[in-house]
Write a structure and sequence with these properties.
Shape: globular
Radius of gyration: 25 Å
Helix content: under 10%
Oligomer: single chain
Structural class: mainly beta
Length: about 220
């Protein structure tokens, strides 16, 4: 009995040690003979995640917005949530570096890059909205046909994504002004792993409306 109790105490230490180190210890059976279990353990990795808590404000006041989370290289949307008028949001993400943006319907926009998420840790973000440039246009394929259900990504340190295009291929996206952008798209929807670059080095000036006309897929 004393030997079994000692072994269980050691196993508890092992459990804490492996859990802290990113592993879970599973006991598959106890058959204590000579103070040792006959089948000891099975190890598997923990799927650790981190939490991001944030608030979106305009002029110091909370505001409703759409918050989007991107991975970079290639630019990829990994999460999108709507924030109520209280401005608070909470995200659960796997460890890594992300871009987080917020956009409202009245063309106010913000970007905060290099958000680092660590496993089992909390990260706080305060997104302060400012005036944006509204970019509109139409996306077409090589044959000149309107591209439906595509989303455009305007990337310049942070990423800003349009709503899905309708049957006429029309898009609209709010971006921070006075920046140079590369424009990508996922023609088959955001589930694609390979974004298509449409154009590079497009400069957007002061806040206002910019009509791009037609953008063609290469």
């Amino acid at each position: 009995m004393r030997g079994n109790a000692l072994m269980l105490k050691r196993l508890k230490r092992l459990f804490c040690l492996f859990t802290a180190g990113g592993l879970v210890l599973f006991l598959t059976g106890f058959g204590f003979g000579n103070g040792m279990p006959d089948r000891l353990l099975h190890l598997s990795p923990i799927n650790t995640t981190g939490q991001v808590y944030g608030i979106v404000t305009v002029g110091g006041q909370p505001v409703g917005a759409t918050v989007r989370v991107f991975r970079t290289e290639p630019w990829r949307l990994v999460n999108e949530i709507d924030v109520n008028n209280k401005g608070y949001f909470n995200l659960t993400l796997v460890p890594g570096s992300y871009n987080i943006t917020a956009t409202t319907r009245d063309e106010q926009v913000v970007g905060q890059s290099s958000i680092v998420v660590r496993g089992c840790k909390f990260t706080t973000v305060h997104l302060t909205l400012d005036d944006a440039a509204l970019v509109t246009g139409v996306i077409r394929d090589k044959e000149g046909r309107a591209v439906e259900n595509a989303r455009l990504i305007f990337a310049s340190g942070q990423s800003f994504v349009s709503s899905p295009t309708a049957n006429k291929g029309e898009f609209s996206v709010s971006v921070p002004p006075r920046r140079t952008y590369n424009v990508y798209t996922y023609p088959a929807g955001m589930g694609s792993n390979s974004p298509v670059i449409i154009t590079k080095d497009i400069y957007i000036g002061a806040p206002g409306w910019y009509e791009f006309g037609e953008l063609l897929l290469h």
